[in-house]
Amino acid sequence: MEIDEDRSDFEKDEEEDDDSVSDLLRDRFRLSAISIAEYEAAKRNGMEISQPIVACIADLAFKYIGQLAKDLELFAHHAGRKSVTMADVIVSAHRNEHLAASLRSFRDELKAKEPQCERKRKKVPRKDDKAIEGIVHIPDL
Amino acid sequence: MDNNEAPTFEQDLIRAIFKHLWIKKAQERERNEFPNSEAVDSEVGAGTSKKNRPTSANANANALKQSCELLRVFVTEAVQRAGTIAEAEGSTKIEPTHLERILP
């Protein structure tokens, strides 16, 4: 019985630390979300967005990132990896085709900025996107 | 005026959030698998190293960038959809009622 009590105290301390770290992260996240939301609202003919709304969107996004983290870990683990890669992120968006397509273009843009990786396979090093499309003939996600 | 690009989430922040969540899960898994690990350590010790080690996951740099983009899109979509409704009502400020309409 005594051992159990000690352990639960220790766990309680851990939980408190955990909560304060979590709160700090949530606050930082909220700040970023606020600046993005205000920027986007302003893009629409200078619309304003009320503060409680932004806080709400930020909290929703924070919950979403929780789900995302869980999904990404599962996908990576399923593929036998310890690290999450871009492929995992794209799979996590599979239910929304537009989103998946957008993430794929994002990945392609990133790859286009790293020409040194592609040079190994190509005989004629080129910097166009078209060149990269030629190589990347993988059964893509 | 500061930069031409849209603001987005910082990679460091997203990485910190991911790590925090993954470490928490790894600890939970460890606790669930070995509830008596404080006692009989010597006996259980041999088993722990062979079985699933409670290591936490990691994100590579490009995956982080993509995740930042994903989250940015999430926030942007929410704001733009609510904004569309606000505009349809002829108001110039996005209010809670507009947000309510776009929720699933």
Commentary on this structure:
The complex is a heterodimer of chains A (141) and B (104). In chain A, 74% of the residues lie in helices and 3% in strands. About 9% of the residues of chain A have low confidence. Chain B is mainly α and 104 residues long. Chain B is built from 4 helices and 2 strands; from the N terminus they run ααβαβα. About 12% of the residues of chain B have low confidence. The chains are: A mainly alpha (141), B mainly alpha (104). At the A-B interface, α1, β1, α2, β2 and α3 of A face α1, β1, α3, β2 and α4 of B. β1 of chain A pairs parallel with β2 of chain B.
- Count of helical regions of chain A: 6
What assembly state would you assign to the polypeptide chains in this entry? heterodimer
Radius of gyration of chain B: 22 Å
Mean pLDDT of chain A: 80
Q: Based on helices, strands and strand pairing, what is the structural class of chain A? A: mainly alpha
Low-confidence stretches of chain A: 122-134
Q: Summarize model confidence as the mean pLDDT of chain B.
A: 78
In DSSP terms (H or I, runs of 4 or more residues), the helix count of chain B works out at 4
Structural class by SSE content of chain B: mainly alpha
Q: Helix and strand succession of chain A?
A: HEHEHHHH
What form of chain A results from the Cα inertia axes? flat
Q: What's the main sheet of chain B like?
A: none
- Pair with the biggest interface: A-B, 56 and 49 residues
Largest sheet of chain A: none
> How much beta of chain A, percentage-wise?
under 5%
